Amino acid sequence: MSAFPKVILRNNKADAVKRFHPWIFSGAIKAVDQAVREGSVVEVVNESGDFLAVGHYSPSNIAVKILSFQPVEELGTLFEERVKQAFAVRQNAGLVGSDRTNCYRLINAEGDGLPGLIVDWYNGTAVVQAYSLGMQEARSHLLHALQSIYGSALKAVYDKSAAVLPRAEMPVENQYWLGDRTHEKVLENGHQFFVDWETGQKTGFFLDQRDNRALLGNYATGKRVLNTFCYSGGFSVYAVRANAKEVHSVDSSAKAIEWTKTNIELNNSANISHTAFTADVFTFLKECDASYDVIILDPPAFAKNITARHQAVMAYKRLNSLALHKLSPGGLLFTFSCSQVVTPDLFKGGVTAGAIESGKVIRILHSLTQPADHPVSIYHPEGLYLKGLVLQVD
Ligand code: SAH
To answer: Are residues 12 and 94 both part of a single domain?
Structure first.
């Protein structure tokens, strides 16, 4: 008998769980044991009491995030198994022990069977973001699992959940569970990046664009490149290292532009011309009179929820149309969306509308997505958030 308190599903609502979808919506619930509170580990059963899953409870629209579709004896063992399995995926992808890349996403929430948990690895420091109280309260299990996998290679663990787990009654504070290292110079495909997880956005670096940056590198040699929404200059560094003719980087955050300059300096032994602009991208694109051979558009999520989705698609249309106008003949547009609620088809629709508005003949060279260290459960298509297209204009 499991010791976990129970959440009882309505009988006609059990299908999604049986198909391994990791979320249970509040409307599917018939009753909840009295002992259940926010963050509780619960056993999900049907009206006859048959076992369905084990997960974390939260009194919200997504009421249970599922940790296991099998009975769970011991939570610590489950965490250790999940983290080990995730580590093996990164090993197989060539990301562990590589002398060219020493940063990667170790845990990608639902994609690694740990909904609500993100862990990014920066050459000895694990940066953790727990999106639910249940995950926050599982920290001793997570820390133990990390120590058992990395041993003495684990120098620091920084919990950066404050921004993603806003709780008025008992606010979560960012803190070190281990060590106190505040930043690191990491390697990605042999390129150096300064990462500051305390003051940086998200966990400090956008690891999800690794493969797409490498692709940009393949196209950038001898080109005039504009990298918009550049953050710490990821795409710009690859362009510089590929011996682009000239690189422009744009971000509205002054801090991001500072990091971009630092990262360009770290990688620009060939002294490629680079200029960074602290500016709004929409304004920059409207006002710049230059034309570029390659433009990268990697905006932040325009829609955080379904109600903002239409506005977001319209924003992609406007942005892509503006950028397409600034491309020289034969030029390339690397265009992305990281809004989870904007599906690949919707994104493509928005970009197509922008293409029509530009009046140019355009072909798709690549359809892009997130890399292997950001895996997606096939039963949870919501986990595929990063979409990208490489377009060429005539
Ligand atoms: N391409 C980057 C990640 C981009 S994150 C990489 O490879 O690392 C999105 C960035 O857009 C953030 O740095 C944010 O500061 C910036 N941003 C958001 N809105 C903006 C706007 N209107 N104009 C310019 N930059 C903006």
So the answer is: no
Residue 232 CB–ligand 1 contact under 6 Å? yes
> Given ligand 1 and candidates 122, 231, 296, which is best to mutate, with the most ligand atoms within 8 Å of its CB?
231
- Return the HEC string of the chain: CCCCCEEEECHHHCHHHHCCCCEEEHHHEEEECCCCCCCCEEEEECCCCCEEEEEEECCCCEEEEEEECCCCCCHHHHHHHHHHHHHHHHHHCCCCCCCCCCEEEEEEHHHHCCCCEEEEEECCEEEEEECCHHHHHCHHHHHHHHHHHHHHHCCEEEECCCCCCCCCCCCCCCEEEECCCCEEEEEECCEEEEEECCCCCCCCCCHHHHHHHHHHHHHHCCCEEEEECCCCCHHHHHHHHCCCCEEEEEECCHHHHHHHHHHHHHHCCCCCEEEEEECCHHHHHHHCCCCEEEEEECCCCCCCCHHHHHHHHHHHHHHHHHHHHCEEEEEEEEEEECCCCCCHHHHHHHHHHHHHHHCCCEEEEEEECCCCCCCCCCCCHHHCCCEEEEEEEC
What CATH code is carried by the domain that includes residue 304? 3.40.50.150
The reply to whether the predicted model has a pTM over 0.90 is yes
Q: Ligand 1 pocket, 298 CB below 6 A?
A: yes
Residue 88 belongs to a domain with what CATH number? Answer: 3.30.750.80
For atom 9 of ligand 1, the residue with the nearest CA is 300
Which of these three, 153, 184, 215, is where a domain ends? 184
Domain edge (last residue) among 37, 68, 99: 68
Please confirm, yes or no, whether 338 is among the known catalytic residues. Answer: yes
Residue range of the domain that includes 263:
206-393
Kindly state whether residues 238 and 381 are assigned to the same domain. yes
Q: Is the CB of 278 under 6 A from ligand 1?
A: no
Residue 252 alpha carbon to ligand 1 centre in Å:
7
- Give the mean pLDDT of 173-185: 97
For residues 382 and 303, state if they share a domain.
yes
Is residue 251 within 6 Å of ligand 1 at its C-beta?
A: yes
Per-residue model confidence (pLDDT) at position 169:
76
Q: Write the residue with the smallest CA distance to atom 18 of ligand 1.
A: 300
pLDDT tens readout for residues 294-349: 999 999 999 888 888 999 999 999 999 999 999 999 999 999 999 999 999 999 99
**232 CA distance to ligand 1 centroid (A)?**
9
